[in-house]
Amino acid sequence: MRQKEADLLGYANHAAYMQDVLMAKDPASVAKFLNDLKVKLQPLWGKEKEELLELKKLEVRICPAKL
């Protein structure tokens, strides 16, 4: 039924229809948004990852695991 509705309205599928109605105009816009977000967040993730690694190193020094 969803596919039939999407076909009648000129959309490739129900997901494309819902994107247009709720958020984005087309799947390509969503892909562009996510790619742009990835580029912007990459430097922040690098910093966050380094902080987490330092905390893990400290944790291992304080409480070494017994294997």
Report on the architecture of this protein:
With 67 residues, the chain is mainly alpha-helical. It has one domain (2-62). It has three helices and no strands. The chain is elongated and about 65 Å long. 0% of the residues are buried.
Output the helix-strand order. Answer: HHH
Assembly type of the shown chains? single chain
Largest sheet: none
Integer count of domains: 1
- What is the averaged pLDDT score? 88
Q: Could you say which structural class the secondary elements and strand pairing correspond to?
A: mainly alpha
Number of helices: 3
Q: Can you count the beta strands?
A: 0
Amino- and carboxy-terminal Cα gap: 57 Å
Helix share of residues? Answer: over 70%
Q: Tell me the fraction of residues in β-strands, as a range.
A: under 5%
Please tell me what the overall shape is: elongated
Radius of gyration: 22 Å
Task: List low-pLDDT spans.
Answer: none
What is the structure about, briefly put?
The chain is mostly helical and 67 residues long.
Features:
mainly alpha, 3 helices, 79% helix, 0% strand
Write the layout of secondary structure elements.
Layout: H1 2-9, H2 14-22, H3 27-62
